[in-house]
Specification:
Layout (H helix, E strand, L loop, with lengths): L1 H7 L23 H5 L6 H6 L4 H17 L5 E2 L3 E2 L3 E8 L2 E3 L12 E3 L2 E8 L42 E4 L3 E3 L2 E3 L2 E8 L5 E6 L26 E27 L2 E19 L4
Length: 278
């Protein structure tokens, strides 16, 4: 019904799917009636269809939560998402070997025995905004918006859409903290002079499910009890601005390097060492 009414007014109905509104673009609850159309969900129209007041209130509450939590896909004309998917990979602990015939690679050798490290995340664009702010408001703009039953999380999802994920085939050591091989969620505690990388065992929801309390969507529902490691990150001011949020692996050697996140003129990084796979 809503989709037909929107189409009749020449508006594009929201698309439902696996990827959803990015963390940096959330419709405030006060805008929800205007977005959906006041007539489309009026009590009278629902009552005419046999809906009870409880159903009406529940429906509005559900839509408010979905919009505020970012469970609707927001795409620009042509279907391009506001925050495209991204991934960063590195391979460590392998060895280049020469075969009987030259390989179709740079250097003509084959890399064998390597272990993969991968970060998957959503990549919001700056689009001229002040990303992190200053003073008492530092970092608040990057955090997800709260909603009834879903308070604003205290940490940044460091991406958009689904929770940022780390997958590693090898143990990673950050300072004195060792993260075993496996899959983890990544968050960042934003402070003006010190960012803290959080490696958490919280599972991630593939799509938003408000009833699922065993996994997270973005950073909603985050609690520190599942933290595996908290790693101080070095902050640097870049001589250029990075438009699209970027995770990357820097200064890589065969057994380590730095994991880094860049957005705007800010880069935060943390060194790590890779151990033998268990």
């Amino acid at each position: 019904m809503i989709r037909r009414q929107l189409a009749a007014r020449g508006e594009n109905p929201p698309a439902f799917g696996r990827r959803c509104i990015p963390a940096d673009f959330v419709a405030p609850p006060s805008h929800i009636p205007d977005m959906l159309g006041r007539r489309a969900l009026s009590s009278g129209r629902l009552a005419a269809l046999g809906a009870t007041p409880d159903f009406h209130h529940g429906l509005l509450a559900g839509i408010a939560a979905l919009l505020t939590m970012g469970a609707l896909v927001l795409a620009q004309p042509g279907g391009r998402p506001m925050s495209p998917d991204g991934a960063a990979q590195a391979q460590v602990l392998g060895k280049w070997t020469k075969g009987e015939r030259p390989a179709f690679t740079l250097g003509r050798e084959t890399y064998q025995g390597g272990k993969w490290i991968e970060i998957t995340y959503g990549r919001p664009l700056q689009r001229g905004r002040d990303l992190f702010g200053s003073g008492e408001n530092y970092g608040k703009a990057a955090l997800d918006v709260g909603a009834p039953g879903f308070p604003a999380p205290p940490v940044w999802r460091a991406g958009a859409n689904v929770t940022t994920r780390l997958k590693t085939e090898v143990p990673l050591t950050f300072g004195e903290k060792t993260v075993p091989a496996g899959e983890y969620s990544l968050f960042i505690d934003l402070k003006p002079s010190q960012w803290m990388l959080i490696v958490s065992s919280w599972p991630a929801q593939p799509k938003f499910d408000p009833q699922d309390k065993t996994a997270l969507w973005g950073a909603y529902g985050y609690t520190p009890d599942k933290d595996v490691a908290r790693v101080p990150m070095k902050l640097d001011t870049l001589p250029f601005a990075v438009e699209q949020l970027t995770w990357s692996f820097l200064d890589m050697t065969n057994d380590g390097g730095r994991v880094a996140i860049m957005w705007g003129k800010t880069m935060a990084s943390a060194p790590f060492k890779a151990g033998t796979a268990r």
